[in-house]
Amino acid sequence: MTGRRPVLLGIMGDSAAGKSTLTQGLARLLGSERVTHVCADDYHKYDRAERAERGITALHPDCNHVDILELHLERLHYGQPILKPVYDHATGKLVRPQYVQPRDFVIVEGLLGFHTPVMRQFYDVKVFLQPPEDLRHVWKIKRDTSKRGYTRSQVIEELEKREPDSRNFIRPQRQYADIVVQFYPPCGVPAQEANGHLNVRLTLRPTIPHPDMSYLVGRETEVAGIRLMLRRDTGRPVDILEIDGSVTPEQSAHLKTTIWNHLPGFQPIPAEEFGIYQDCGRTRHSDPLALTQLLLTFHLLREFETGAQRLFSPPVASLNRTPPMVSV
């Protein structure tokens, strides 16, 4: 740490929405020595067996120490260490807590990190991942059967059991995000056959300033696979940036250069070192994923160089205070 408070990024979304993949690419771009990763799912009250006994899912706020997460987000926001609980996803057990010292950038990812106003006030940038449900189900089945010891039928049963809590507690957090990220298959391609050819739609809300990509407006970009459009989302004007999985290398490189140019003094890294994901044990690369990670890196560095330049402020007096309003 340099005397400046950390920059906090929140990446929320349902189980297997791609949060960890996005986080890993950001750590590569920023440098792992500058990034602290916190999983909000570590704050589960009950282990897997206890949840089954109580008939409660991990998505329900009552199954999580929401108040402790609020306290820890406040401490991280002010550059203070935490003793974080740890939930072992492989075994479904709660294990020894971990001492966490925040670095320049703190990435908090999980299920319920935007659930309360207290939580939301401590992030500098808030991102919500919202793939189509059929695609997310494909990802969850692949992950949980290969890494977490479930059978396919068990995962499907769990998805059905979780749906009410997903609808009531996870998906509503979308409204609080500065950026909504939606990876989706091309038209006519079933989710289970999409593989690495996913498009991405980024909803860029005016709650934070975005890099100037106006050169994309009014250009013949349909063939190139990149589009920037003005739309409305939840009644508010937003920019929609769409990048096709079939985007040409030239257009992808052009947009990457545009974003890099907004990061003076930041040394670009080779394109093949980010935008990486795992598919059935194989390492693949996606230009839409790489561009999404690069855009988020812009926001984190902008916050680090501007808003986070101020020295540490004294801790807030109470977590019950009214969170500050954001002008839009």
Structural overview:
With 328 residues, the chain is of the alpha/beta class. It has one domain: Rossmann fold (3-Layer(aba) Sandwich). Helix content is 30%, strand content 23%. The chain is built from 8 helices and 12 strands. It has helices spanning 19-30, 48-54, 66-77, 117-120, 133-147, 152-170, 249-260, 287-305, and strands spanning 7-13, 35-39, 82-88, 93-100, 105-110, 125-129, 179-184, 199-204, 226-233, 236-243, 276-279, 282-285. It has an 8-stranded mixed β-sheet, with helices on one face. A two-stranded antiparallel ribbon has the order 3-4. A two-stranded antiparallel sheet has the order 11-12. Helix 5 (133-147) packs across helix 6 (152-170) and helix 7 runs parallel beside helix 8 (287-305). Residues 313-328 have low confidence and may be disordered.
Radius of gyration: 20 Å
Major sheet strand order: 2-5-1-6-7-8-10-9
Share of helical residues = 25-40%
Low-pLDDT parts are 313-328
* The CATH C-level class name: Alpha Beta
The total number of structural domains is: 1
CATH superfamily: P-loop containing nucleotide triphosphate hydrolases
Number of helices: 8
Q: How many β-strand stretches?
A: 12
**H/E element sequence:** EHEHHEEEHEHHEEEEHEEH
Major sheet details: 8 strands, mixed
CATH T-level topology: Rossmann fold
Question: How is this fold's topology laid out?
Answer:
Elements: E1 7-13, H1 19-30, E2 35-39, H2 48-54, H3 66-77, E3 82-88, E4 93-100, E5 105-110, H4 117-120, E6 125-129, H5 133-147, H6 152-170, E7 179-184, E8 199-204, E9 226-233, E10 236-243, H7 249-260, E11 276-279, E12 282-285, H8 287-305
Parallel strand pairs: 1-5, 1-6, 2-5, 6-7
Antiparallel strand pairs: 3-4, 7-8, 8-10, 9-10, 11-12
Helix pairs in contact: 1-8, 5-6, 7-8
